[in-house]
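Holo prediction. Input below; ligand is manganese (II) ion.
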Amino acid sequence: MSMKQYEFWFVVGSQFLYGPEVLDTVAARAAEMTDALNASGNLPCRLVYKVTAKTNKEISDVVRDANHDPACAGLVTWCHTFSPSKMWINGLAALQKPWCHFATQYNRDIPNDEIDMDFMNLNQAAHGDREHGFIGARLRAPRKVIAGFWRDEAVQKRLGSWMRAAVGAAFSKELKVMRFGDNMREVAVTEGDKVEVQAKLGWQVNTWPVGQLVETMDAVTDAEIDALMDEYRAQYDFATDDLDTVRYQAREEIAMKKMLDAEGCMAFSNTFQDLYGMRQLPGLASQHLMAQGYGYGGEGDWKVAAMTAVLKAMSEGQTGGTAFMEDYTYHLEPGNEYSLGAHMLEVCPSVAAARPRIEVHPLGIGDREPPARLVFEGHEGSAIVVSLIDMGGRLRLICQDIECVKPIMEMPNLPVARVMWRAMPDLATGVECWITAGGAHHTVLSYDVTAEQMRDWARMMDIEFVHITKDTTLEALEHDLFLSDLAWKLK
Ligand code: MN
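Structure of the complex:
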């Protein structure tokens, strides 16, 4: 399902105490607010006003329907009036979808002349939402709390941002990952518990033989390759005359896409150690698939492949870009420190600053023919890098804020796509924090998805979240990791 096909249900809490007139007013205002939020352009998905709930049954009914409706990606609740929260316990205990408590208020200002006890009885979200907040805390229910005036653009955008995280959760629950071959031999961080990941995140991670991919490649027609070559020409510059090599990448891409689509997989991994029967490691092929929304992970790294797909789903329709990435090497000049991210081939062109070039160069690793790949620089801007690791018994999501820059040198002999950035809080501290937390060398780099969205997503998936920011110190991080380790062992 695409972003626009998901909807969120608006459930407003109240009770019978105030009489039908107040309840009618609450319902009318809830519908008005829903229409205005949908018309604002700040929500990526439709908000649907469902009910002004006054009983345990009404709440349990709407939660049951939300749980069973694949189009419903989450619940947004609010208490215009006071809604005694014992009536919410059964519903919230059964809720299986992400929940946002929207602590807003119909009126922006206190009306000086008009305010009397009738006004107070109708407009009491300030304490209605606290009763609602208590039951969320008491039930230890994972939830997002967003406070502010519903017509305020910044508040609407925060709600929209949370919706994207919730779509990431819905996407995750359905995600299938295709592994071509196993993980690179002896590597630890790309391993993981596929049963735990499926139970927690929903990912179905399975293997298909490289031989089947080769058979599928053999069946690709020249006409299919011609059509994809036209697409390459429309989007990329050809900085090579070796069209046979580019056509071979097209053959690989078409075959991989056929296998992915036949199984409904939105992410895939492969490894240069298992290319039996293939002439080239897929480079351009994997890059162009990523540009279409598929997640990719090198060296059999199915976790980063899946995370790339999840972040791409969360940022659908946005234009900053999201890519599979690897920390490669540092520039340690004092006062001018940078990380250089790249991969042996496969960085997604969605992060390119300018039109990518197709080039053909030898690959020192993997014992195959020189592959075609896209070469480009990443653009400037604030971004995050994200790594999901398996701590044994639980998953940890590590997110670091970074500031991407135009690479400070041209690196004319570097034959791969590259992104250069300043890691927060500074390179040395950032590296110390990342390594202390156990973050992988592979990451997802995104200019679109925010750290707050990753925090929201981690809460929805019930996994640990570690955030390295401009304010992070190693001492505080170590303390948090120590306490977190204890807490997650008890959980
Ligand atoms: Mn790698």
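The chain is about 40% helix and 20% strand. That is the main takeaway for now.
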